[in-house]
Amino acid sequence: MRRLSMKTALLFATLATVSTPAWAAAPIEGRYVTENGRAVVAVKTCGKAMCGKVDKILRPKKGVPARDINNDDPALRSRPILGLPILMGLTADDDVWRGDIYNPEDGNEYRAVVSRMANGSLKVQGCLAFICKTQVWKPAS
User: 10 Å Cβ neighbour count for 34?
Assistant: First the structure.
């Protein structure tokens, strides 16, 4: 059996103790057009986390006020969609951002998993238990 030199053994021992770094979540700050093309969401730093608010309404629904009319809380149904928090408390978790997402179309909040794609778009997932719905938000010009 071949013996390792002391130098080679030290090199292997050093390499074995060096941990590989976790993939860092790509930055997600920016402005994005939602998949349905109805709004632009501005994503930015909010304290120690990231958040996203409706920055612009592109295609309002005809006959439907631009208010949070589907909210479960009647006191919040009159708040405007413009400026409405959509993404909340996103923090980096390996290569994704995790937090919450609010859907004004059904008035519910979901667990969110957000990641930046190679083309600059955001992959946005809203999850309830193990069921997730995925959207792709493109960068706003």
Answer: 20
- Cβ–Cβ < 8 Å for 55, 42: yes
CA–CA distance, 90 with 76 (Å, rounded to integer): 23
End-to-end alpha carbon distance in the chain: 65
Which residue is associated with the tokens 């919450």? 100
Token pair listed for 17:
């103790």
At residue 4, φ and ψ (nearest 5 deg) are -85, 145
Beta bridge partners of 42: 31, 53
- Residues constituting the chain: 141
Helix and strand counts by DSSP (H, E) for the chain: 1, 8
Tokens matching residue 92: 């980096």
Nearest alpha-carbon partner for 37 in 58, 8, 63 = 58
**According to the model, what pLDDT value does residue 19 have?**
39
Note the pTM of the prediction, 2 decimals.
0.80
Coil vs helix vs strand at 2: coil
Q: Which helix (H) or strand (E) holds 13?
A: helix 6-17
- pLDDT classification of 3: cutoffs 50, 70, 90: low
